[in-house]
Amino acid sequence: MEYTVEDLGGGVAVLHLDGRLNMVSAARLREAVTSTVALGHTRIAVDLAKVDFMDSSGLGALISGLKTTRQAGGDLRIAAPSEQVKLVLQLTNMERVLLAHEHAETAFSG
Amino acid sequence: MADVARHTLHLAVPPGDVDAVHSLLEAVWAEAPGIPMMERFRFETALLELASNVVKHADGGSGLWCTLEIDAHPEHIEATVLDDGEPSDAQILLPREMPDELAESGRGIAMIQALVDDLTYSREGTTNRWSISRRFAS
Question: Which of A22, A55, A64 lies closest to B104 in CB terms?
Answer without folding.
Answer: A64
